[in-house]
Amino acid sequence: MDHWNAPPRPNTYAEHMLIESILIGEFPVGSTLPGERTLASELGVTRPTLREALQRLARDGWLTVQQGKATVVNDYLQEGGLNVLSALVVHSEHLPEGFVRQLLEVRLQLAPAYTRAAVEQHAGRVSAVLAEHEALEDTPETFAAFDWRLHRQLTIDSENMIYAMIMNGFADFYEAVARSYFRPKISRVTSGRFYADLAAAAKAGDGERAQEVSGKAMSDSIALWEQALAVGPQVGGPGPDYGGVEFWR
C-alpha cells in the first residue's frame, strides 16, 4: 500500500476544480461565481470547505470575495502572485500563449544576478556542480536534469532566498520544458559552452565574468526557443509535450 496516493483534501479538491473552471472559461474573468449553496453542491463539498477554498483563491488573486456580494473572478494574470504562477504550472495545459517565452525573459533578468552572487559567495560550490558537465550524456533528458540542478544550486548559493523560492515554484515544469528545449542538438552544444565558460569564471572566482556569461546564455536560450518553435518537429523528430502543452505549435 506504500504506492497508494492519499485522496486530496476536500478544500484542495475544491480549489483545484475552481481554478480549472476559471482557466477553461467556465467562469471567465469578470464573471461572478454561483452562490455558496449551489457551488458547494456542484463541487460535492460542504459550505465551510468551499469558503476555505474561496478564501485561499482570494488570497492568491484569483477572486474577489466580499461579504454580502457575489464573488468575482479577477484578471488573475494581473492580480495574481507567485501562487498563481505555481497553479498555472500545475494546470499547464491551459498556459497563456507566450508563457514560456515570458518565463525565459524573466530568467534573462534574474539568472545573471543570482549567478554572479553565487560565484562571489560560493565559487567552490558552483565549481563542484559544474564539474559534472563534461561527463553529461548527450541527451535532452540528461541536459534538462543537469540544467535544473545547476540553476537551483546557483539560486541557493546566491544566498538570496527569494531566488530559490521562485525557482522551486517551477521544479517539475522547468525540467519538462527543458527536455523540449534540449531536443535540438544546437541547444545542447550552446549550453555545453555556457557550462564550460561559467566553470572557468567560477574557478577564477570572477563574479562579473560569470554574470556576463550567464546573460549571454539566457539571451541565446530565448533565440533558440523561438527558432525551434518556428522550425517545428523537423528539428529532432516529433515534438514532445510539457505538462500537456504541445511544444511544437
Outline the secondary-structure elements.
Blueprint: H1 10-23, H2 36-43, H3 47-60, E1 63-64, E2 72-73, H4 76-79, H5 82-90, H6 99-130, H7 140-157, H8 161-168, H9 171-181, H10 185-203, H11 207-231, E3 241-242, E4 245-246
Antiparallel strand pairs: 1-2, 3-4
Helix pairs in contact: 1-3, 2-3, 6-7, 6-10, 6-11, 7-8, 7-9, 10-11
Concise synopsis of the structure shown:
The chain is mainly α and 249 residues long.
CATH superfamily of the largest domain: GntR ligand-binding domain-like
Question: Structural class from helices and strands?
Answer: mainly alpha
CATH architecture of the largest domain: Up-down Bundle
Widest β-sheet, arrangement of strands: 1-2
Rounded mean pLDDT is 87
Overall number of domains: 2
CATH fold-type name of the largest domain:
Four Helix Bundle (Hemerythrin (Met), subunit A)
* Regions with little confidence, pLDDT below 50 for 5+ residues: 1-6, 233-249
Q: H/E order of the elements?
A: HHHEEHHHHHHHHEE
Report the count of strand segments. 4
Question: Key features?
Answer:
Four Helix Bundle (Hemerythrin (Met), subunit A), two-stranded antiparallel ribbon, single chain, disordered C terminus, 249 residues, 65% helix, mainly alpha, disordered N terminus, Arc Repressor Mutant, subunit A, 3% strand, 2 domains, 4 strands
